[in-house]
Amino acid sequence: MAILRSAFITLSRNNSLRHFSERSTLGRKMSSRFVAGMDIEDVLRAAASLNAQGISATLDSLGENVHTPDEARRSADIYHRLLDAIHERRLDANVSVKLTQMGLDLDRDLTFGIVSELVKHAASVNNFVRVDMEGTNHTDVTLELVRTLHAREENRGHVGIVIQAYLYRSESDILQLLKEGIRIRLCKGAYQEPPNLAFPAKGDVDANFVKLTRILLPSGIFHGIATHDEAMIAATRQAASELSIDRHSFEFQMLYGVRRDLQRALVKEGFGVRVYIPFGSEWYPYFMRRLAERPANVLFLARSLLHR
After folding, report:
1. What's the rounded Cα separation, in Å, for the pair 209 and 252?
2. N or C terminus of the chain with fewer C-beta within 10 Å?
3. What contacts 57, CB < 8 A, 6 or more positions away?
4. From the candidates 5, 130, 183, 185, which is the catalytic residue?
5. How many Cβ atoms are within 10 Å of 50's Cβ, its own excluded?
6. d(C-alpha 216, C-alpha 39), whole Å
7. Is 247 a catalytic residue?
8. How high is the pLDDT of residue 270?
9. SS3 224
10. Helices (H) and strands (E) in the chain, counts
C-alpha cells in the first residue's frame, strides 16, 4: 500500500499526464465518482442532494498554484459566487479554499487580501471559510493567515483551518489554535512528506489521529473529524462516549463519493456528517491524492468502468 501511495502522489505531480487526463473523456468519466462536475451549478445540485439526506456540505473549487494575480482573483470570484448562491438557496454548506489557488506562491499580501475579502463575505451571510492545509512548505504561512484573520472580532467563528495528523508538529499547532478558539478540521494528510517531518508508518499516524481527536472533542469548539477509516470513527465515538461529548458538538467529515454507506449510517445514528464536494476542470491532482489515500478506490474505479 505504501508503494501505491507514493506512486499516486508522484503521478499527481506529472503535468503531462494531468493535461491529457483533464482533457480526455475517459479521464472525466473516471473522476466523476469523486468530483461533482465542472461548474457551479453542478456542485450546488450535489449539495442540495446531500442536504436532502441530512448531510451538510463544503464546496471546493479545484485548482492549485495559479500563475498570475488575475488567475487568483478569478479563483476567488468563484467562491464569492458560491457564498451568494448558498445564501440565496438556503443550503447547509460552506466553502473550502487552498491558499496556492489564491496566489500564495505569487504574493503573500495578495493572498491575504483575497482571503480576507472572502472571510468578510462569509461573515456577512453568516457562513464559514475553511482554509485548507497543503504541503509543509506552506504550513507556517497558512497558520499565520488564519490566526490573523480570526483575531479580528468580526471574523470570529467564520474562518477555520485544517490540521494533518501525520505531522509531528500538529499537536503543538492544535494547542495554540484552541487557545484562540479556532475551528479545526482534523485529517490524516494527503501529501508526501519526509520522515523528519511526518510519521512514516500508518499505525503511528492513526495513533496520533486518535490522540489529537481526544484533544479536540472536549475543547468546547465545533470541530470536524475527517476520516473514512472505520477504526478512526470507532475511536472517535469511543472518545466522545468516555468524555461525555454531545454528538452535536462535532461532526464527521468525508469526501464526495467515498463511503456513502458510512455517511448515511452515521446520519442515521444521529451524528453530524459533512461531505466535501469538489468541482471544476482542474481535478487531476485531487483525484490522484484520493487514490493515494485509499488505493482500494482503484479497484472500485476499474469495476465501474467495466460495467458502464
Report:
1. 13
2. C
3. 46, 47, 50, 51, 91, 92, 93, 94, 274, 275, 276, 277
4. 185
5. 24
6. 35
7. no
8. 95
9. strand
10. 13, 8
Strand partners, 69: none
Catalytic residue among 5, 60, 132, 259: 132
pLDDT in tens, 114-150: 999 999 999 999 999 999 999 999 999 999 999 999 9
Active site annotation includes 185: yes
CA distance 180 to 222: 13
The pLDDT of 11-24, averaged and rounded, is 53
Residue 258 backbone phi and psi in degrees, to 5: -115, 125
Residue 148 and residue 70: Cα distance in Å, rounded?
24
Banded model confidence at residue 63, pLDDT cuts 50, 70, 90: confident
Q: Count other C-beta atoms under 10 Å from residue 184's C-beta.
A: 26
**Cell numbers 443550503 correspond to what residue?**
91
Question: Distance of alpha carbon 162 from its chain centroid, rounded?
Answer: 7
Q: Which residue has the cell 450546488?
A: 44
Return the C-alpha cell found at 284: 487531476
Q: What span, in angstroms and rounded, lies between the C-alpha atoms of 45 and 277?
A: 11
Q: Is 281 helix (H, G, I), strand (E, B) or coil?
A: coil
Instruction: Determine the average pLDDT of the residues in 186-215.
Output: 93
Please give the residue that has the higher pLDDT: either 182 or 26. 182
pTM: 0.85
Asked if 189 contacts 166 with a C-beta cutoff of 8 angstroms, the reply is yes
